[in-house]
Design a protein that fits this description.
244 residues; alpha/beta; Undecaprenyl pyrophosphate synthetase; 6-stranded parallel β-sheet; 8 helices; globular; binds 3-methylbut-3-enyl trihydrogen diphosphate; binds magnesium ion
């Protein structure tokens, strides 16, 4: 048996509570590459390849919604060559993976803004959303050109534009104006590469998420690592501010 098929057949003891909605801050591609003496884009390529196996593992572990942080509104500030390289990699990822994701029943959604995004990329994103819109197996929210604060700004603008009366504004209404409208809050947010910060990711929807940080760089974060995060989540006691 090849090492790969051995890994595929590995048994993972069942968990009591599998998080319904998991967010991942896929961080550390640059440092992964640097540690190997490779250019940063090689790290982004490895990170993109890793996404494929983590998506498969996500479905196997029974997670229903996965929100991945792919590109933040702040990431435009990186060197032009890195930004354009990332756009190219992401376009290629859509081209290569769309049919398999569709066959696996993955519904792709985009959360984030459209401004600054190259026209061709926008068309590819729209195509991916259209093709997969009726799939029900896993919702994959791609946070691309996403910022949690900009999401709140966009929500406030839309609320004002709709002429909503101040007394009608409550948490449920704000929820309905977010990019994630209709989806439940994140239960577990994983950050790879060891940084202990939120970096503007799901700041509203993560208000009561459990956080899990691993020093592993994103390209090395595999199915075993995901399972470890789920075990840690399973052991947490979620109190939501009340007494247990
Ligand atoms: C995460 O990896 C991917 C993106 C932000 C697009 P980084 O590129 O941030 O990698 P590090 O943090 O510099 O190692
Ligand atoms: C967060 O990582 C954004 C993504 C993973 C897409 P960053 O690398 O941009 O965050 P900081 O700069 O370490 O806070
Ligand atoms: Mg980073």
């Amino acid at each position: 048996m090849s090492p790969k098929s051995q890994a595929d057949q590995k048994e993972y003891p069942p968990l009591e509570h599998v998080p319904f909605h998991v967010g991942i801050i896929m961080d550390g591609n640059g440092r992964w590459a640097q540690a190997r003496g490779l250019p940063r884009l090689a790290g982004h390529q490895a990170g993109t390849d890793n996404l494929r196996r983590i998506l498969r593992a996500t479905v196997e572990f029974g997670i229903k919604i996965l929100t991945i942080y792919a590109f933040s509104t702040e990431n435009w500030g990186r060197p032009e060559s890195e930004v354009s390289g990332l756009m190219r990699l992401m376009e290629r990822m859509i081209d290569r993976e769309l049919s398999e994701l569709h066959a696996q029943g993955v519904q792709i959604r985009h959360i984030g803004r459209s401004d600054h995004v190259p026209e061709r990329m926008l068309e590819k994103i729209q195509h991916a959303l259209d093709v997969t819109k009726d799939n029900q197996h896993l919702i994959l929210n791609v946070a691309f050109n996403y910022g949690g604060r900009k999401e709140l700004v966009d929500a406030v603008r839309a609320i004002v534009a709709d002429g909503v009366a101040p007394e009608a504004i409550d948490e449920a209404l704000i929820d309905r104006y977010l990019y994630t409208a209709g989806l439940p809050d994140a239960d577990l947010i994983i950050r790879t590469s060891g940084e202990m910060r939120v970096s503007n990711f799901l700041i509203w929807q993560g208000a009561y998420a459990e956080y899990y940080v691993t020093p592993t760089f994103w390209p090395d974060f595999d199915k075993d690592e995901l399972y470890k995060a789920l075990v840690a989540f399973d052991r947490r006691e979620r109190r939501f501010g009340v007494l247990s």
